[in-house]
Design brief:
It is built from 19 helices and 13 strands. The chain is of the alpha+beta class. The longest helix has 21 residues.
Length: about 500
Amino acid sequence: MRKARATVLIVAALAVAGAGTVLAAPRAGSAALSRERLTNGLEVVVAENDAVPLATVCVVFRGGAAAQKPETAGLFHLYEHMLFDGNEKYPTQADFTAAINRLGSPGWNGATGREFIEYYLTVPADKLAEGVEFWSWAVRKPVFEAGKLEREKRVVISEIRGYHVDPDHVADEGLESRIFADYPERKNIDGPEETVQGATIAQLEEIRAGYYIPRNMALIVGGDVKAAEVFALARKFFGDWTGGPAPVIGRPPQGKFPQGIRLVYPDDQYYQGIAQSEIRWRGPDAALQPADTYAADVLSFLLSSPAGRFKSELMKSGLGLYDPEYIGFGSPLTRDGGEFRFSAILRVDPADGGVSVLGRNEALRKFVDAQLTRIAADPSAYFGAEALGKAVEKIIDRNLISAEVASSYVTSTLAFWWAVADPGRILGYEANYRRIGWADVAGVAKRYLEGAPSATLLRIREDAYRSDVRSAQDEAELGYAELRKDNAFWWQWKGATK
């Protein structure tokens, strides 16, 4: 059941309010959130939704990749696995799983992300107390044993090997590790096999003492529950828990993108007849520029409109783009290391007018930059005055839709919000989006996109790339470097030529 999960691309973040505060729902008919902070610093968030007689209980910690150092890369993921191997009440993995079965859980799991670690299970609503108690034993009283550690090392290393031969993972990590070259270990939950193989129980205890503490945790419960009951259970099972101060995560912050990152990935498993172009720019961080993340969201939404001007201009560019449905633009919300991301599919056609696919990728990058400059100058004229209001309404509605299913709202939305975002986002979620004007959109475009360093990656089927006699020459002339499985990951090149 266990899995590692990359950060979900969500538009909003959880607010931190005073004890017992009810966070007003943005519209009538949507569930209100309630929040209480225990005296030990632990946050409790409740989303009441009585649509079905179930309750989802989630414990979430800030950490994951964002808290890694080169010498600890992969250990937060390993710790997550170890938590399922037993604790003082349920000593073995079999005992742990049997307890979940007795609770009648239809679904449970754990996940390590870039900026959080979470554990959750869904139970019948009348088993809420047992569900909260279950996780209190797991996170407060884990038992680490040498034999279990060696077994979980093998499991995690097997997963890492899977990541490292997965072409999607190679492409993403190869680009991200270079654009965040100062701290690339903070952008991916895996690491070199030898780091995981050499992990010790003492290192796990350091993670426990530094990160698995009340001031770095939230208990998030959603479903057919009442806030007062959840708060009482939190105090009962977590109220006497002590720990140190909340850890500092993501500092120093990731820097600006280096100039001239140009990569080509000849991938022998990629599709025939097409190539994927990706362009990225440094974006706002939720921890440092929270206000900019709202405007970035709106701008990304406008650029992603299926019938919008941006996609229309690209399709008319003559650059051989495949289809507007395969043009994307986004600004994933993240606490540290924010980005803007553009992607498109190019046709690989022998009758290309003498311009190689690398040449067309460079032309595409320049074309996109020119469009962004026009947007920064006057986004209202570019998109149309009415487009802003429509985008804001759709963003708000998208958040309302995410709250309809309590289990996914708790595990994929609220847990993520709490871990990565500024305190105050959900409390004024709708109001914060409604106050975004064209000047805010223009400001974000000017500060982060207009004339800013960009990084690009072209992914193409290897035989198509090798068969084009222009490839090697264009690599050198256009400043591209080849990405491979043996140089994609930061530990393969850090300290050497990138």
